[in-house]
Amino acid sequence: MDRKLAPAINGIAEFDIQRPVKRIMPNGIEVNVLDTGKEDVIRLDLVMECGQVDQDFPLQAVMTNRMLREGTKNMTSTEIAEKLDFYGAWLDLSSSVNSGFVTLYSLGRFFTHTIRTLAEMVKEPVFPEREFDIVVESNRQMYMVNSERVEVMARKRLNTEMFGDSHPLGRFAEMKDYDNIRVEMLRDFYNRFYSSGNCTIFVAGKVTDEVMKDIEECFGKEPWGTDKRKEKFVLPEPRGFKDKRVTVKKNDGMQCSVKIGMFMPDRMHEDFTDLKVMNTMLGGYFGSRLMKNVREDKGYTYGIGSGIVTYPGKSLLVISTETDNAYVEKVIEEVKNEVDRMKNEKAGRDELEMVKNYMIGDICRAYENALSISDAWIYVLTAGVDMDFYDRSVKSIRNISEERIMELANKYLDWDSMLEVVAGNI
After folding, report:
1. Of the candidates 119, 226, 327, 343, which lies 20 to 30 Å from 54 by C-alpha distance?
2. Helices (H) and strands (E) in the chain, counts
3. CA atoms within 13 A on the CB side of 384
4. Model pLDDT for residues 202-213, shown as the tens digit of each residue
5. Is it the case that residue 339 has pLDDT exceeding 80?
6. Rounded to an integer, what distance in angstroms lies between the CA atom of residue 381 and that of residue 329?
7. Do residues 170 and 314 share a domain?
8. Cα dist. 107→8, 82, 207 in Å?
9. Residue 231 has what pLDDT?
10. What is the mean pLDDT of the chain?
């Protein structure tokens, strides 16, 4: 072996994400089984079909989800925490635009104990007033801190301008909402949406017959909750922005947050997977055109990037950076230059190969873990895409050409359709 010579770079020959085996519990709940691991570890996800778009009041969805761990008919929040800690389990509660997630990580040998604790949390929460007040105050403090960050100011304003302040995706919680939220609102949301008829389960790891028996015993035998599937909700059309440039003033800001956004096709569109490649070349990784120009060449910022933020029915291409107040106009000018260059200058073969290798490697890294495979199929469920989404994504990455990227740039990257939001001392 000649150690003076670098080894040859070889692409990933095959890529395959294990598909789940679907089972239906006696009460109708679908369980997606990913028997992936040799280690005695289990990941269990309950995906509830309810989120931000379903709430009647700000904070209702996320606070309902968060309060599940704060007490049941038979256990206090302290007892829940101590029991999970005793068995070495970890619990994560989160909420998105259209879904609520309850995720449990547990050692397989203790799964019988941990899933029973989880089942009581999900099926018999009491939403105690004392814990509710503590959770609200904690979230209020986080809101106060985050609301002073220019990045948060710009991100919220971008969505509000693009969708409209009356649109579910353009509305954000305000300080008054922490004063107005009540336990009764959470109980109402829970009673409407948390049920066996509105739940899908994913289980990954070393999934034995005993594990499946425990899942059926705790969640799959009898209907629980109101057992009523929610009606299909259709989001209204976004308003679209009125002014090309919007500023959010923060007098003591040491730097400005710049966000430039425009609407893109949603995940169901035939161009979507190719657009992700185009975006990666523009600003989706550390070697992107925006990073090389704005960071490495001009030195206007420590980092700049672009991403496609997906929502039900719509997507947003968002270019984001933070920069010194004096460089705002120069940064925006260089972003425009790179957008124009995407439309007028064909990528070189080496540049495109770098993007392709990065994207396929990134997919492999994301789903290389036996438990993280659940994330792939949870995305398929919540996004509403088909089971071939990842196969099509990899095929798109491998087959896309330089000409196709230019075609997409000319079709979609219209500078006049891009909203500029600047937050800071400007």
Report:
1. 119
2. 15, 11
3. 13
4. 999 999 999 999
5. yes
6. 41
7. no
8. 41, 16, 11
9. 67
10. 94
One-character DSSP codes across 1-50? --TTSPPPP-------PPPPEEEE-TTS-EEEEEE--SSSEEEEEEEES-
Under 8 Å CB-to-CB from 311, ≥6 apart: which residues? 97, 169, 235, 266
Whether 59 contacts 181, CB under 8 Å: yes
- How far apart, in whole angstroms, are the C-alpha atoms of residue 353 and residue 132? 52
Strand partners of residue 104? 44, 91
Dist. CA 354–CA 358, nearest whole Å: 6
Residue 5, judged by CB atoms within 10 A of its CB (0-12, 13-18, 19+), counts as exposed
Average pLDDT on 18-47 reads 95
User: What is the Cβ-side half-sphere exposure of residue 291, based on CA atoms within 13 angstroms?
Assistant: 13
Contacts 24+ apart (CB under 8 A), 145-148: 147/175, 148/250
* Residue 203 DSSP one-character state: E
Q: Quick one: tokens of 394?
A: 């990899």
Determine, yes or no, domain membership for 225. no
Q: What is the DSSP letter of 380?
A: H
pTM score, whole prediction: 0.91
Domain residues for the domain of 72 are 21-220
Split into its structural domains, the chain has a count of 2
Q: Would you say residue 12 lies in a domain?
A: no
Q: For residues 378 and 254, state if they share a domain.
A: yes
CATH number at residue 257: 3.30.830.10
The DSSP output letter for 241 is: -
Beta bridge partners of 298: none
Tell me: do 100 and 184 sit in the same domain: yes
Q: CA-CA distance, 25 to 61, in Å (whole number)?
A: 26
- If asked whether residues 257 and 216 sit together in one domain, one would say no
- In a domain? residue 229: no
Q: Which of 172, 187, 220 is the last residue of a domain?
A: 220
Please say which residue of 220, 253, 274 terminates a domain: 220
pLDDT at 230 over 70: no
pLDDT of residue 12: 67
Judge whether 377 lies within some domain. Answer: yes
- Taking the alpha carbons at both ends of the chain, their separation in whole angstroms is 59
Same domain, residue pair 175 and 254: no
Tally Cβ neighbours within 10 Å of residue 287.
Answer: 14
Contacts of 190 (CB under 8 A, 6+ apart): 64, 125, 127
Same-domain pairing of 194 and 325: no
